[in-house]
Design goal:
The chain is of the alpha+beta class and 370 residues long. It has helices spanning 3-24, 28-31, 62-74, 199-213, 238-246, 333-342, 347-359; strands at 26-27, 32-34, 40-49, 89-98, 107-114, 125-132, 138-145, 147-148, 151-154, 159-162, 167-176, 189-194, 218-222, 225-229, 249-250, 257-261, 266-269, 274-275, 278-281, 285-291, 294-296, 307-309, 312-318, 324-327, 363-364, 366-369. The strands form nine sheets. A six-stranded antiparallel barrel has the order 3-4-5-11-7-6. The chain has a four-stranded antiparallel beta sheet with strand order 2-12-14-13. Strand 6 (125-132) and strand 7 (138-145) form a beta hairpin.
Length: 370
């Protein structure tokens, strides 16, 4: 092979490695959030009317009865002292998420969930319901017909229910009445919050931002926060800067951790899990005991007696053939999984083996049982 051909081969291999590394990196947009750019939760209490006898029993849900009386009194109808027996009304909790920078008049979706003993909200209409935030202020007003994802039907001797008929959704069912007082353009500093806090990842984000701007303006404040101070000579649009930062690609650093779900037998292992030299043995010892008594019959004219004699068959089966293996030092996750699979080990046995290797001090990873 000529020198020129060798150089071309090296360039091609290097380009392929760089492309592979770039593809494995993640955008900052996918692993972190800008402080202030988030949703806010809203909640409200209201009434759903128009139900076909599937609403709350007023005797069992006194809050529904009180709410119905208060609503009718506000509308000029006095029903104090009367005995209400309607089952076409249900008390509900209404929840919604208010996106960041939502302007007044924008419509958002709401979720409606029954509070009392209503059987179904199918065909119901939510009456005007104020939605408040954590500060107690009203930010939206919800009203409209419900769309539920299930149904319930019953007869004299049988009933059928599919999905959850006591919870529904109103698309564009709330109108925003109050805007959040957050001015992004007036900010002189930004805080980037990592979704998975990590010191190494925070430092890599800060280095990538400083390389983009050309000045040391970003620094990791803690494993979950990167603080960015806008330089004085920055006269551009902060939205453009944030857009450029979101598109930067870095390689997130992950701790060596093993997650075990004992209930379902699910095991999730990170790529940095390492194992020192250790021998693993796994076998199934089965002992089978079978009682099969026999009858002893005497010979004719022997004056003997017929007796039953016990006979026990004991069988020992050792299923540990080819179940012993030595795991070499500093094997990777793929090598560890391939080796344990070669032993024929299932998920349940694998959980016990990993915990035993950790107890032996040969597993360089944290085990978390959920």
């Amino acid at each position: 092979m000529s020198l020129a051909s060798s150089l071309r081969l090296i360039v091609v291999v290097a380009t392929a490695l760089v492309a592979t590394a770039a593809q494995s990196a993640s955008r900052i947009k996918d692993i972190a959030d800008f402080e202030g750019l988030r949703e806010n939760q809203l909640i409200g209490y209201g009434l759903v009317v128009g139900l076909q006898g599937t609403g709350d029993s007023l005797n069992n849900a006194p809050f529904t009865k009180q709410s119905l009386q208060a609503m009718l009194e506000r509308l000029g109808v006095n029903i104090r002292g009367t005995n209400l027996k309607t089952q076409n009304v249900a008390a509900v909790m209404v929840t919604a998420n208010l996106p960041a920078f939502t302007t007044q008049g924008t419509r958002i979706d709401v979720t409606v969930s029954a509070m009392g003993d209503a059987d179904s909200l199918q065909g119901g209409t939510l009456l005007v319901t104020p939605l408040i935030g954590a500060d107690g202020e009203v930010y939206a007003i919800a009203q409209g017909p419900l769309a539920i994802g299930g149904f319930s039907a019953q007869g004299a001797a049988a009933s059928i229910t599919q999905g959850v008929p006591t919870s529904g959704r109103i698309s564009n069912g709330a109108v925003v009445e109050r805007e959040l007082n957050f001015r992004l353009a007036a900010m002189t500093s930004l805080r980037i919050q990592l979704r998975n806090p990590d010191l190494t990842t925070a430092r890599r984000i800060a280095l990538a931002i400083n390389e983009l701007i050309g000045l040391p303006t970003a620094e990791p404040a803690d494993p979950a926060t990167v603080r960015l101070t806008l330089p004085r000579e920055f006269n551009g649009n902060i939205v453009d800067l944030m857009t450029d930062i979101e598109q930067l690609r870095i390689e997130p650093d992950l701790p060596a951790k093993i997650i075990i779900d004992e209930k379902s037998g699910i095991i999730v292992m990170g790529q940095n899990v390492k194992v020192s030299t250790v021998a693993v043995a796994q076998g199934n010892l089965t002992v089978t005991i079978a009682e099969s008594p026999v009858v002893s019959q005497p010979q004719p004219f022997a004056n003997g007696q017929t007796v039953a004699l016990p006979r026990t068959d004991v069988t020992v089966t050792d299923g540990s053939e080819k179940r012993v293996a030595v795991v070499p030092e500093s094997v990777t996750l793929q090598q560890l999984v391939d080796g344990l699979n070669a032993l024929g080990i299932g998920p349940r046995d694998l959980i016990s083996i990993l915990q035993a290797i950790k107890a032996a001090g040969a597993l360089q990873a944290e085990i978390e049982v959920i």
